[in-house]
Specification:
Oligomer: single chain
Number of helices: 9
Low-confidence stretches: none
Number of strands: 5
CATH architecture of the largest domain: 3-Layer(aba) Sandwich
Order of helices and strands: HHHHEHEHEHEHEH
Structural class: alpha/beta
Distance between the termini: 34 Å
Mean pLDDT: 91
Number of domains: 2
Radius of gyration: 18 Å
CATH topology of the largest domain: Rossmann fold
Helix content: 55-70%
């Protein structure tokens, strides 16, 4: 049983690193049929594998397509494990809460979806509120979900000002000090983040994870 546990746990780790959805599915299904705690596999193998993917991406060993595929491999395994986690009353340790969405006027979702997945796999509770999201919806959702961070995506230069609008709305409602705000998206950069008073900028999904960890001091 010990050897079987080691093989399954390592198999999940290897499946993510090798970007192998079939192996991830096979290992997750074996785990479900075993006595292995799925939460342990999630925290000790699957999340560390995604952290390693992020590290390799940052140093240029992997590129965006591989990053996207790794998130999909993780999702495939997670979908299989989730029912067992819930049935056992377990849950991944929640390091903090993030509300993420694409700002008003912008319907791009691929980058936002990848960032949400990567932050989630790092152990944070993520609420993806979609695209074309009005400023006050971000405020409402952040308060309702008791979020620590609001993540704003903008993929168009014409919608970048909507990120600033969210920050201004937080100020007008006396909520600015309650939430950290991070921004990202194709046309967004560090200078823009500083100009609008955001708490941070992530150039890509891997950087976004590091930023969230830093801001919540995990």
């Amino acid at each position: 049983m010990v050897m079987e546990k080691q093989e399954i746990m390592q198999g999940l780790y290897d499946a993510i690193l090798s970007l192998d959805p079939e192996k991830a599915k096979e290992m997750a299904e074996k785990l479900v049929k075993s006595d292995i705690d799925p939460t342990e596999a999630l925290e000790k193998k699957m999340s560390p594998a995604m952290e390693e993917i992020g590290r390799r991406f940052k140093i240029g060993e992997l590129f965006l397509p591989e990053l996207q595929l790794s998130a999909e491999v993780f999702r495939i395994a997670m979908n299989i494990l989730q029912p067992k986690i819930l049935a056992s009353g377990g849950a991944m340790k929640n390091k903090g809460r993030v509300v993420i969405g694409t700002v008003k006027g912008d319907v791009h979702s691929i980058g936002k979806d990848l960032v949400a997945t990567m932050i989630r796999t790092a152990g944070f509770e993520v609420y993806d509120i979609g695209v074309d999201v009005p400023a006050f919806t971000f405020l409402e959702e952040a308060q309702n979900k008791k979020a620590d961070i609001i993540a704003l995506s903008a993929l168009l230069t014409t919608t970048m000002p909507m990120q600033q609008e969210v920050i201004e709305a937080l100020k007008s409602e006396g909520l600015r000090e309650k939430f950290r705000v991070i921004v990202g998206g194709g046309p967004v950069n560090q200078a823009w983040a500083q100009k609008i008073g955001a708490d941070g900028y992530g150039e890509n999904a891997a950087q976004a994870v590091d930023l969230v960890k830093e801001l919540i001091s995990v």
